[in-house]
Amino acid sequence: MLESEGIDRERIMSVDRTKVDEALEVTTMSESDVYEIAESEYVRKAEVDEDVKETRLQGLKDRLAGSEEPETAELRDEIGE
């Protein structure tokens, strides 16, 4: 594909991204024609207010303690009560 645009493949196969970007600027090729592009998603942990976390956890524990549902025993075990 590079040769069809008049660019010597060996000239841009180095790790110098500047050369590749320059070649892309003077051709009709896109980055995806030259680079393997893969998108990925990730989750980033936000800051946690420990006081709010503990208050919410205690509220959950209190609600579970007052419940007689069969599933609550499993949840109580899971949160460490």
Would you summarize the structure shown here?
InterPro entries: DUF7983. With about 80 residues, the chain is mainly α. It has helices at about 10, 15-25, 30-35, 50-65, 70-80.
SSE-based structural type: mainly alpha
Total beta strand runs: 0
Percent helix, as a range, is 40-55%
**What kind of oligomer do you see?**
single chain
Number of domains: 2
Low-confidence stretches: none
Write down the overall geometry. rod-shaped
Counting DSSP H or I runs of 4 or more residues, the number of helices is 5
Rg on CA atoms, Å? 28 Å
Question: What fraction strand?
Answer: under 5%
Description:
The chain is an all-alpha fold. The chain has 2 domains: 3-34, no CATH class; 46-81. It has helices at 9-12, 17-25, 31-34, 50-65, 70-78. It is rod-shaped. The mean pLDDT is 82. Residues 62-81 are annotated as: Disordered. InterPro entries: DUF7983. Pfam families: DUF7983.
Provide tags for this entry.
single chain, 81 residues, 2 domains
Give the helix/strand layout.
Elements: H1 9-12, H2 17-25, H3 31-34, H4 50-65, H5 70-78
Region (Disordered): 62-81
InterPro entries: DUF7983 (IPR058289)
